[in-house]
Fold each of these.
Amino acid sequence: MSHRIAGSNLNPTHTRRAKSRRGEEKVPEPSNEQMLDLYIQMVRSRAFEEMAISLVDVCRIPGSWMSGIGQEGTVGAVGQLRPDDYLTYTHRGAYCFLSRGSDPKRLFAELLGKRTGCCRGKGGRHLADVEHGIFGKSGSIGGHAPIAVGLATAIQIRGGDQVVLSLFGEGASNRGTTHTSMNMATIWRLPIIWLCENNGYAGSSPAAAILANADVAEMGSAYGMPHTAVDGNDVIKVFEAVRPAIIRARSGEGPSLIELKTYRLRPFGEGSGPDRRSPDEIEAWKRRDPIRSFRRRLLARGILNDEQVEKIAHEAGREMEGARAFAEESPFPDPEEAFEDLYA
Ligand SMILES: Cc1ncc(C[n+]2csc(CCOP(=O)(O)OP(=O)(O)O)c2C)c(N)n1
């Protein structure tokens, strides 16, 4: 029913060519238009992240920000959801929001604790955007896996063909919540795509030091679902790996597990202590920056030209400047609002 693709975590050359989940079936590449859109979403995400980092640096964002810089290949998964699909994520990656249509103004407002934020200033960096089907993360790692099961069960009961894309880090893969949720999802044939962004580290712990098997895709065997691992820095490979899993989930055949081998180019959290990873290792992965390599491919294939590259970067920068200004100018909630939206 499934196959495995081996790969170690930290060697940038580790990823072998991934076969389609259905063996010989070839998944069509995204169209030129889709590729251009994926690229734009990746650039917007990077621009958002850079702005967020600059706001942490000047203490405008309380606490930290978990940057997804380097992991933008995940756009290949998030970017092909339908607007009515659902998503749960870890704590990393502005792409989870921007490729789903979230307004960066409301995201920055939320990070700054403002009333105009997508959680009315009460979520902070624990972002959710229910209007765009993003049911957030849990403060407890792996805590959102049962939420994904709940969402998928609701879809099943209502009889729709929506799917749930549930992102998690390899650190969350060893939580009991993740295992229980995967087991239930298979038994109930729930429409979930489990997507592990394996960036090689949980906090400062290398995956090999905390996981009995750092090839997370192989968990799929234990829970009887199709599974595959791909180069998470290659947005097209991500797109192609996720495509059949979405089709399978939509047609009621149940969950799949896809592991993206990737790397975060920033520390675990912005402003939350030194990065203990080796500078050589970070440099090696910088050379595999997912945006840069995708841009090269698009330029070589004539899907993008230098002028468009400039324009896309400029527009993304301006959009995030505008979003930041909106957030800065927005009011804080009134103290009484702390008692609204409570679940009791
Ligand atoms: C149950 C639980 N244990 C520990 C933590 C503290 N914690 C926050 S993030 C993190 C590492 C998560 O690693 P991973 O899931 O791989 O995601 P990544 O940060 O690499 O994207 C830890 C241990 C937590 N939030 N919840």
Amino acid sequence: MAAADKKASIADALDEQYYQINLDILESFSKYRPPLNLYRFKEDVARVLPYCKAGERLSNEQVEQLAQLVDEGLVFVSREDHPVYVKHISYQLDLVLVDKNLHETEIADIFTQALTRRLGEFFSQPVPLVFGKLWTDMMVLTEYLYADANRIRALSRRLHQTHTLANHSFNSGIMGLAVHIKQQSKQYEAGEVKRKFLDHLTAGLFLHDLGMSKIPPFMLEKDKALTAEDRGKVQRHTQVGYEMLAKLDLRFPEVEECVTDHHERINGSGYPQKKQGQAIGPLGRLCGLVDSYCAMTTKHPYGEPVEPAKAVAQLAQDQGYDQELSRILQAMVMLQSKPK
Ligand SMILES: [Fe+2]
Ligand SMILES: [Fe+2]
């Protein structure tokens, strides 16, 4: 049997309990102290046996032997160590693109952890260096979705329940992509969507509230309604965000539209420019809709979440939102809330 076939057949046989690891993944571990239990497939007895324990110190010979065994496809980690493995991979997200043994739901967990953490880091330190890491991880997501846009579904089932700026940004990004992909499903199937467009839209949706990172947290954590003055400050976040994009040299129209227009409403009831109808571009409308949906359905310091089904029904009746997008979101949420 060819080496590659042999590796695959061992992995298939053990798929349910173990993940086979490859050299990329091994290299991402601490060389002398792997962060989780490792197992070795013993061919003579056709069984998986413990190889070394989490955090155990390996000798130089063991390090060499381990690399050799990994290369032969004989080293595994247990699915019971899923949380450790997910956390580990989330620090080096591009590994999800090379690890063929991860399930779609496991990959979705990894993206959720990685992107939410990167968003949080960027919002607490919105400088180019930190942004670069967030951008890299967002591009891993778009590469993953570009290969099969339906993969967004597993991600859209992993929204955060509690509001923080990072959680909200993750949720809005994922829901925005889910609605967009549904709306453009034929174009995605036909391969007619440009990768660059998906990249920029993704960045716009995840970053729509970046201006909020400049608002002092105590103002956002208040458990009662804001004063008119405070509200004015908060409402400036779209303009502040736009200025931050320029400083990050992120001058793509898709990103700018999400940032500047997500509080504009088709009936003119929004801000800051009180734009109406077609004056608000399709991405501004998309971002506005999912932003509201995600804000309504998470727990805030000032209130409990609205049920998803109620939230979409409310949005569908609101003349401020794009009716077609609203219907797509509603159909999607109703389908998800159906018992299986
Ligand atoms: Fe906003
Ligand atoms: Fe928002």
